[in-house]
Amino acid sequence: MTRHFGRISLLVSVASWGAFLAILFFGGLDPTPALAQYLRSATMGTLLSVLVSGCLAAIALVRGPQRVSAGVALVLCLLYGLVFTGAIYALLSWL
C-alpha cells in the first residue's frame, strides 16, 4: 500500500488546490451570509486534506518508490499552508 502514497498525496494536493481556487471563485473573499458557513466548512476540509496529503508525502519520501511525486506533493502542501495562513504575504514583503 505504501507504494502508492506518492501518487495519492500528489492527487490530493492538486485536488485541494483546485477546491481552494473554487472556494475563492464562489465568494471566498466576500461571501454572502448564506454561503459563509458552507465556504468555511469547505476551506477546513481542504486544509485537513492537505495535512493528510503532507503526512502521506513525508512517508512516501522515506519509504516509497515514488519520491518525485511525493516531493512535488510536499511542496504543494507547504505552499498551500503558506497561502492559507497568509504567511506568503509576509515572505513576499520581506523579499
Folded structure, characterized:
It contains four helices and no strands. It has helices spanning 5-28, 33-63, 67-85, 87-94. α1 (5-28) packs parallel to α3 (67-85). It has 95 residues and is mostly helical. The mean pLDDT is 86.
Give the SSE layout.
Blueprint: H1 5-28, H2 33-63, H3 67-85, H4 87-94
Helix pairs in contact: 1-2, 1-3, 2-3
Précis, in short:
With 95 residues, this protein is an all-alpha fold.
Number of helices: 4
End-to-end C-alpha gap: 42 Å
Which shape, going by the Cα principal axes?
Answer: flat
Q: Would you report the number of β strands?
A: 0
Share of helical residues: over 70%
Which labels suit this protein?
95 residues, 4 helices, mainly alpha
